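To the wet lab folks,

You asked to see what we're planning to order before we commit. Fair enough. Below is the target structure as tokens, and below that is the sequence we designed to fit it. If anything looks off to you, flag it before the synthesis order goes out.
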């Protein structure tokens, strides 16, 4: 080797060493803190005699078939917490949920943007929010924030070292799109006495106008499983896009299939008397246009609760199957993002209101029965609504999993669209979360008509709401 070659090699080595001194450090993502979790429930069954709002007219409860619950899971990683609360109720408006969140913040210090409070959508619970001819039961509405907060306090008190896993299965045999295309060439008059709807509800099926389903279903069963570091189960958050089942006894308070599922999965896991108790939650996916009735094959008459038991048992079987396939971790990042989306309200004109008042003719709610009368009363009420409402959206992250929270009754096609956008990351949709702004159909379904699109308190928003909500969710899901 020549002397010149040796000099060049020494200079090159020196240059590499000096460059290394100034090279940027490679960022290393810090490992999330070890997970802790806690779960608890509180009984929220109202007294017999409480108003129920699951039908078009108010009903008075006469019996408790099964207890109603608020069910809570809190996850903690370092200083980050996420809270999920499922409440056995049909509808919970935003002011009441905001009140609950503030009481929880004061009690345990969890920021409201890291709290998901959602109704299951059982139609056989006490009335917390006005819909159709039913108004809130004032005493029940004033009382319920207390036990909901207590459930969260107990869950936080029971925080313990934990592991988490998530997965999905499928249960297609119980979900059907309840919006049916009207057969071409058929004359159809809806329950408001109007023609022109190109879709009808399957609550009047089978009928000569029935044609095809007007939209898709989401048969996916999603779940988040939480267990203690020693392996025994702590809690389970499941999700299924089925509106409710019904078939309860008249005047009977019941958590519908949501509560029955929680009991059955607890039995399947063999932990009915565990200390502290295992807690199961079933959240409602995007099921605004989905129910349990196949218009092509009407179900035979069944005893009360029989179909609830059947659906809950099948769902528990599928969840139990998926649970046996999961891999757990005790270190996950817990994240939360939120946004407010302003959406216009479909306000009636002055002429609409005047026509409605003439039809009502000063009659009280107890004198109204028909859909025409319900529609007229809602026009009067909608006239006092603000021109715009602000809808809260939240996305929680548990590791790679994303949980989107929708404040209303969302059609399956909207939930499927968001799941597709989130790919390859898994995504769960929870509806009726953090507020209730009625049915929120996508624009294409608005154009077809039928009950979920009629201008009522149960569907007050402009037809462009879903594109705006999806666009905001897309932003919240960005890395």
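Sequence we intend to order:
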């Amino acid at each position: 080797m020549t002397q010149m070659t040796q000099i060049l090699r020494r200079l090159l080595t020196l240059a590499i060493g000096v460059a290394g001194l100034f090279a940027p450090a490679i960022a290393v993502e810090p490992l999330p803190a070890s997970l802790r979790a806690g779960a608890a429930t509180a009984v929220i069954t109202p007294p017999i005699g409480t108003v129920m709002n699951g039908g078009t007219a108010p009903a008075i409860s006469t019996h408790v078939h099964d207890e109603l619950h608020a069910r809570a899971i809190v996850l903690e990683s370092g200083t980050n917490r996420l809270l999920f609360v499922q409440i056995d109720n049909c509808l919970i408006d935003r002011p009441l949920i905001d009140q609950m969140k503030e009481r929880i913040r004061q009690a345990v210090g969890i920021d409201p943007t890291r709290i998901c409070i959602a109704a299951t959508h059982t139609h056989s619970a006490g009335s917390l929010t006005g819909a159709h001819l039913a108004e809130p039961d004032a005493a029940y509405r004033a009382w319920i924030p207390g036990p909901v907060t207590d459930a969260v306090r107990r869950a936080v008190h029971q925080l313990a070292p934990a592991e988490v896993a998530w997965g999905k299965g499928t249960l297609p045999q119980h979900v059907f799109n309840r919006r049916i295309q009207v057969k071409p060439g058929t004359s159809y008059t809806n329950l408001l006495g109007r023609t022109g709807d190109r879709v009808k509800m399957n609550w009047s099926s089978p009928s000569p106008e029935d044609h095809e389903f007007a939209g898709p279903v989401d048969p996916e069963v999603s779940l988040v499983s939480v267990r203690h570091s020693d392996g025994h189960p702590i809690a389970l958050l499941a999700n299924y896009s089925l509106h409710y089942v019904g078939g309860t006894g008249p005047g009977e308070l019941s958590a519908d299939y949501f509560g029955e599922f929680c009991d059955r999965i607890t039995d399947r896991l063999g932990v009915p008397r565990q200390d502290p108790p295992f807690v199961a939650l079933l959240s409602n996916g995007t099921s605004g246009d989905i129910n349990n009735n196949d218009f092509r094959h009407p179900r035979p008459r069944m005893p009360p609760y029989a179909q609830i038991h059947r659906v809950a048992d099948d769902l528990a079987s599928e969840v139990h199957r998926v649970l046996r396939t999961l891999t757990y971790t005790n270190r996950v990042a817990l994240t939360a993002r939120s946004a407010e989306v302003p959406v216009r309200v479909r306000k009636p004109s002055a002429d609409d209101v005047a026509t409605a008042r003439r039809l009502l003719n000063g009659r009280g709610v107890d004198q109204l029965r028909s859909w025409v009368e319900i529609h007229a009363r809602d026009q009067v009420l909608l006239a006092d609504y603000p021109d715009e409402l602000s809808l809260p959206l939240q996305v929680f992250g548990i590791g790679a999993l994303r949980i989107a929270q929708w404040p209303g009754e969302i059609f399956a096609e909207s939930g499927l669209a968001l799941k597709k956008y989130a790919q390859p990351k898994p995504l769960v949709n929870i509806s009726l979360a953090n507020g209730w702004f009625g049915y929120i159909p996508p624009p294409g379904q608005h154009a077809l008509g039928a009950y979920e699109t009629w201008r009522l308190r149960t569907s007050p928003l402009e037809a462009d709401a879903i594109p705006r909500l999806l666009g905001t969710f897309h932003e919240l899901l960005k890395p």
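Structural context that might help your review: The chain has two domains: 35-176+213-334+392-437, 348-382. Confidence is low (pLDDT under 50) at residues 1-5, 11-27.

Thanks,
Computational group
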